[in-house]
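In this section we walk through a basic example: taking a raw amino acid sequence and producing a predicted 3D structure, encoded as discrete structure tokens. The instruction is simple. Fold the sequence below.
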Amino acid sequence: MEKYVEQLIEDIRKATWNEKPPHELWVESKADPDNELELEDMSYVEKYLYGEKESISSITGIETHFLPPPEKLTKKQKELLSKELEKLLSIHHFELDFPRKYPHHLRYSFIRSFWDEEHVAMSFGTSHIEFCEYDKEKCPFPGYCKTCDEVEAQMKFDEESANRNINDNLGDDELPF
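The resulting token sequence is shown next.
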């Protein structure tokens, strides 16, 4: 398996050379890809108005069946492959949103399952891919993610703030409903 993984990493690195040229929309618009606001706007337009969805394997040029099942790989092999696959995805303007300290060897299973998903290939910008459903009970990253706690705390704060504002704006003879 070691030799196969080495060859796969070489193929992944070669696939980074296959970056697609910008969509003609970019040329026509004369948008500046170095201007963050224009980049965001044009990426949105490209993705949602002009893009046809295709599998990540098609976008990257690495077919899913070339990615070994996680159980056939060592921890080190999964770590190496996940790093290389994330670099490849980055070149194609995809960013997988993992918790900052989530280990690379654990990422491989998520990346491999993502490989069959269909998305729009983009010329510029970044398409963020989330695995979180914001449900503490279904957290895909137990022990590494604090997002659900942060969302819950923000919602509680927002609710308390809204209630304070309602009560502050009511007169003595007004009811809150």
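Looking at the output, two observations stand out. The chain has two domains: 2-132, 146-177. The first strand starts at residue 53 and ends at 55. In the next section we compare this with other chains.
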